[in-house]
Description:
The protein has helices spanning 4-8, 27-43, 56-63, 74-80, 98-113, 131-141, 152-161, 204-222, 235-244, 258-265, 276-285, 296-304, 318-329, 339-358, and strands at residues 15-19, 48-53, 66-69, 83-87, 117-123, 146-149, 167-170, 192-195, 226-228, 251-252, 270-273, 289-293, 311-313. By secondary structure, the chain is an alpha/beta fold.
Amino acid sequence: MLPLARLNRxxxxxxxxxxxxxxxxxxxxxxxxxxxxxxxxxxxxNASPVVLSANPQQTQALHGVSAVHRVTGLLPALARAEALVxxxxxxxxxxxxxxxxxFYLWTMRAALAFRKKxxxxxxxxxxxxxxxxxxxxxxxxxxxxxxxxxxxxxxxxLQELGVTRPRIEVCADLxxxxxxxPPPPEVSDFGVVLALRRWRESxxxxxxxxxxxxxxxxxxxxxxxxxxxxMQEPDDRTLAEAAAGLVPGARVLPRLAFAQVAGAVMRxxxxxxxxxxxxxFAAVAGxxxxxxxxxxxxxAFMEAAxxxxxxxxxxxxxxxxxxxxxxxxxxxxxxxxxxIDDLRRLARRNLEVLQEVLEGHTx
Length: 363
């Protein structure tokens, strides 16, 4: 990290505009923003961050930061900013939405048109399934000032796309920098946290039936209580409540602030999750985890965390999932010694790169 004295010589307070999947009810992305803002406060004390959000009032209340609407507020905010920072998440992918990819690339192109510095921090890139998506992404990213990535697979994809002009480093997910907060007293200790999402099921009833089968399988095989965790509001909560209605004794954790969700995971004995950031919360807390991988980012994180053997396909049978959950409950050293500390150091490196860009230390 660069010395604080050098930061103070930056002169003015650089206005940093942050873009991401913010204000849309996703606990993982809010944790990314929370980790990013906390680290900016520690490592870039002169900076003045402003967040582009789908719900600026909610973002201001949740994070205590200035926020503007990500569409109507973009151009006025860019005019006053020194840099646009795309902070974390899977912004550059077209598996769930081509429109979303185009929106974020358009935001980045607007920053470049305003002659602002463009930095991508802690990004997970891909999947990019369409040739047009790949071409558009490469064209914009080759004009960025620096890119840090949360996994090596994203670096390989950028190399494949021909993104070679900006500085590129593999770091780690920004949510690793989040400090968990204790959940309310009613969120007591429990056995297994189950964090699921709908994925390719044609009907909501099919997703609920599968989630219910996983709850029953884990509770029956492991003799542990199961608590369903909603990471994306309202979709995951609708699924969790439908599943819990089919399984006596299963419960749904209440809606909590993102840092409280991380704190609630600390009270679990094991986590079984499709959701990436539920797995990251488990890693920070030292709680054993089992991943149900629906996207390459899930397996990539488990590899980085030292748990590659604890990854199942998202559609694994209830028996397979229950067996893995039972083994996880007895896993006394779930992560290699020092591995999560190393990942947190890499997460801090994201901000050091931003700091260097703001000071003009780029190739």
